[in-house]
Write a structure and sequence with these properties.
By secondary structure, the chain is an all-alpha fold. Helix content is about 70%, strand content about 0%. The longest helix is centred in the middle third of the chain and has 35 residues. The C terminus is likely disordered. Pfam families: 7TM_GPCR_Srbc.
Length: about 270
């Protein structure tokens, strides 16, 4: 519901597409809506199977799990792209201002679509996967065979490192170097930068930590505590969408004054 509200609110703004630093974030709202809807269906199905202890639908876990993996891939690349965009805007503001328009967002979208298609090749060709899920399977892990699941863990680890590195650079530039340097301090932080930092926190708190928890303590799994990973991810999406609503609708997030301008006469907003 939060994401529907964000999509509806920002689609009505005439200048929404002109703000290139927010365009990727607007598309991420759409991905979050579909991913949260997918997780809601999965959690409802899990609750139903726990209550009845029967009525497993043939291949249903795969048709829920596979879109979730694909949406997770798209979301990771969007979060990485947003973080990279914010790091460039923060560390090289003049270069970013002069050259940002030379790199069309269509290239980012084409790359993400191509990578999603590559994952289909990995699953169905490289891993030789066939859609024949056992009736007693009701988790994402058993819905996707070991071959692809090993690739997914490798992919997630790399994306966590990349996103974490960008977040550390962004945090250092905004809250450490900016406060330690001599002279005037720029305290103007854009909405896109706040959202990028929030994205990273949500990923590590609600995506990475549950995976780390279950890896360290195998007794914590779907059979003992239920779908902990999916529940944490859904909770993270709810918290993030709620905070983003407040960030985007709060006009006081970015205070800009004349003293915060660069020699090129444009405001330096991180």
């Amino acid at each position: 519901m939060f994401n529907i509200y964000l999509i509806y609110t920002n689609s009505g703004k005439k200048n929404a597409q002109k703000k290139m630093d927010l365009t990727l974030i607007y598309y991420r709202f759409v991905v979050d809506f579909f991913q949260s809807s997918n997780l809601s269906i999965y959690l409802y199905y899990m609750l139903h199977t726990y209550e009845t202890d029967q009525n497993y639908i043939k291949n249903f876990p795969f048709y829920v799990a596979w879109p979730n993996f694909q949406l997770g891939t798209i979301r990771c690349w969007l979060v990485f792209s947003i973080g990279l965009d914010r790091v460039l805007a923060t560390c090289t503001p003049i270069f970013y201002h002069n050259n940002r328009s030379k790199f069309p967002l269509s290239g980012v979208f084409l790359f993400i679509v191509a990578y999603a298609l590559l994952e289909n090749y990995i699953l169905f060709v490289h891993c030789d996967f066939e859609i024949d899920i056992p009736l007693d399977c009701n988790t994402f892990r058993c819905a996707i065979e070991t071959c692809y699941h090993n690739y997914w863990k490798w992919y997630q680890q790399i994306m966590y490192v990349l996103i974490g590195t960008l977040s550390i650079i962004l945090f250092f530039r905004l809250f450490i170097w900016n406060n330690c340097k001599k002279g005037a301090k720029n305290k103007a932080i854009s909405r896109a930068t706040w959202i990028s930092l929030l994205d990273s926190f949500i990923i590590f708190a609600f995506d990475f930590f549950p995976v780390f928890l279950t890896a360290q303590w195998p007794d914590i799994n779907t059979k003992t505590v239920g779908p902990l990973g999916s529940l944490c991810k859904q909770l993270g999406l709810v918290i993030e969408s709620f905070v983003v609503c407040n960030v985007l609708l709060n006009k006081k997030v970015v205070p800009i004054t004349r003293s915060q301008t660069s020699p090129t006469n444009f405001p330096v907003v991180y």
